[in-house]
Structures are given as structure tokens and as C-alpha cells.
Design goal:
The chain is of the alpha+beta class. It has one domain: Alpha-Beta Plaits (2-Layer Sandwich). Helix content is 20%, strand content 34%. It has a 5-stranded mixed β-sheet, with helices on one face. A hairpin with a 5-residue loop joins strand 2 and strand 3. The radius of gyration is 16 Å and the shape is globular.
Length: 106
């Protein structure tokens, strides 16, 4: 394998090894700081993605991580957060996408 002439070359994340998921949260999840809590929780994990409110009252989260364990730990932290009682139902769907950073979409 040839070395790059540019010493500052950074390998892009391999989308085949990245784990990504879309999660929909139902319940009393809007107007209670849910998105802000998710963003704060995200700071403690090596994940990237975004979260947003949907018109139908749900919250959508799309998130990726290099390690499945990191992704699952992040999702568990959300379920155990101060707003966990507001979550009535979650629906998960795998994604083939990666993200940079973590933000709230409006």
C-alpha cells in the first residue's frame, strides 16, 4: 500500500464499517427539551448525527458511530435520561449514511 505524499491526509470514515441508525421517538417528546437533552448526551459519545421535531409530534434522530457498542450506549443513555418518562415508543431503522458533528435541525 502506497503512502500518501500529504502527511496531513486523514482517512475518511469507511461507510461500510460505520454503524448508523434512524430512531423515531413517540410520546410527550416535543416542548420538553428533548432535542437539547439528546444533543447534550451526544457530547459524551463518539457519535455524529442530528435530531429534529416532526410535524406529527414525534422526534427523529439519525446517528452514526464507528463502533456499534458506542451507538448502543448512546441510545441507552437517551432511554435512561431525565426525559425517559416522556418516551412512549421508539422505532428503529438501519441507515447507510454517516454524519459529521451533532446538531439540532429545525
Amino acid at each position: 500500500m502506497a503512502k500518501s505524499a500529504n502527511k496531513n491526509f486523514e482517512k475518511a470514515p469507511d461507510t461500510l464499517t460505520m454503524k448508523a441508525i434512524q430512531v423515531f421517538y413517540e410520546g410527550h417528546v416535543q416542548g420538553v427539551g428533548f432535542r437539547w437533552m439528546v444533543k447534550n448526551i451526544a457530547h459524551g459519545y463518539e457519535i455524529s448525527g442530528w435530531v429534529r421535531n416532526l410535524e406529527d409530534g414525534r422526534v427523529e434522530l439519525q446517528v452514526s458511530a464507528e463502533e456499534e457498542e458506542e451507538l448502543e450506549a448512546f441510545l441507552t443513555a437517551i432511554q435512561k435520561s431525565a426525559l425517559a418518562g416522556n418516551i412512549r415508543k421508539t422505532m428503529r431503522r438501519p441507515l447507510c449514511q454517516t454524519f459529521k458533528g451533532f446538531e439540532i435541525h429545525f
